[in-house]
Specification:
Low-confidence stretches: none
Helix content: under 10%
Largest sheet: 5 strands, antiparallel
Strand content: 35-45%
CATH architecture: Sandwich
CATH topology: Immunoglobulin-like
Mean pLDDT: 92
Radius of gyration: 17 Å
Shape: elongated
Number of domains: 1
Structural class: mainly beta
Length: about 140
């Protein structure tokens, strides 16, 4: 099997009945980070960067999916960082409940707003679909 002309992440779909396969590039933010951390005054670690480990490091579910269960404080904000201790790249969104994942200068100047109620939340970030969700636990 000959590989694609360009490097990157690809989805390979195999149809065993027809004896065919397709190789499709995965779109999204490129490169997809190997790690993800949360920083902000909505978290226990506040805006201290590097963030406290392991409490503010996401669990990696796949090459482009991350999840964390964390307490968040209302009327505050946060950001996602791919490198702990580094402000050069950041991700976030405009909604307290989730939505489009934004990168660097596209993140609102007020950062990602915390939910309306203080409590424990499950945050899910998907770099393939460029979406994030915030679910009260």
């Amino acid at each position: 099997m000959i590989g694609p002309a360009n490097g990157g992440l690809y989805q390979i779909t195999v149809d065993f009945i027809k004896g065919k396969y397709t190789v499709t590039p995965i779109t999204g933010l490129n490169p997809i980070p190997a790690n993800l951390f949360i920083v902000g005054d909505a978290t226990a670690g506040q805006w201290s960067n590097p963030v406290p480990l392991p409490t503010q490091q996401f669990k990696q579910l796949s090459n482009g999916e991350f999840q964390i269960s964390i307490p968040l404080t209302t009327a505050k904000s946060y950001l996602f960082l791919p490198v702990n201790g580094d402000w050069s790249h950041k991700y976030g969104g405009a909604s307290a409940t989730g939505g489009d994942l934004l990168a660097d200068s596209s993140v609102p100047s007020s950062n990602t707003p915390a939910p309306a109620t203080t409590g424990n939340y499950l945050l899910y970030v998907n770099f393939f679909t460029l979406k994030y969700t915030v679910t009260k636990q």
